[in-house]
Design goal:
Keywords: Signal. The chain is of the alpha+beta class. The chain has one domain: Beta Barrel (Lipocalin), CATH 2.40.128. Helices cover 17% and strands 47% of the residues. It has an 8-stranded antiparallel β-barrel with strand order 1-2-3-4-5-6-7-8. Strand 2 and strand 3 form a beta hairpin. The chain is globular, with a radius of gyration of 25 Å.
């Protein structure tokens, strides 16, 4: 007959073995995506106009976009008619980056979550696109026929 002390001491290593194996199987094995240097750098961008591609009209604005992928933030402010606008904060939940190091070709699609005034949240995708003629930021990744584009300058 085994003593209660023996049963207790025998059960401790067994418990540790089971919980240790459980922790090993519960570890996140999702591979981390490695992004190139230009994809991870903080960008401060500004624009003095937005273009509505549907009817090809332009509207003067003062827009600022601050993108910090390492902190997972995309903050922006868009002021019209000289009225100041508060900086809106969004969280970057994912990104797809194919932009080249000198920002003349490629794009970055940011998946973001934004807090609404009523306490709800909205998910969206926005696009930073580089072309030989410049940088453009748009409110969605849909067809060029129905977008709001911001012509950007790096600061």
């Amino acid at each position: 007959m085994k003593s209660p002390l023996f049963k207790f001491l025998f059960s401790i290593p067994l418990f540790l073995l089971i919980t240790g194996v459980g922790k090993l199987t519960a570890q996140d094995t999702t591979p981390q995506i490695s992004y190139s240097k230009q994809c991870l750098q903080m960008l401060k961008l500004s624009s003095d106009k937005m273009i509505f591609t549907k009817d090809k009209t332009e509207k003067p604005v003062k827009a600022i976009f601050i993108i910090n992928p390492q902190k997972r933030t995309l903050d922006f402010s868009i002021s019209e008619n000289g009225k100041s606008s508060a900086m809106r904060k969004t969280e970057i939940t994912d990104m797809n980056c194919t932009i080249n190091p000198d920002f003349t070709q490629g794009k970055i699609v940011y998946s973001i979550i934004e807090s609404n005034n009523d306490g709800t949240y909205s998910a969206n995708e926005v696009l930073l696109e580089a072309t030989p003629t410049g940088l453009y930021f748009s409110n969605n990744i849909d067809s060029i026929n129905n977008k709001v584009l911001f012509v950007l300058k790096k600061e």
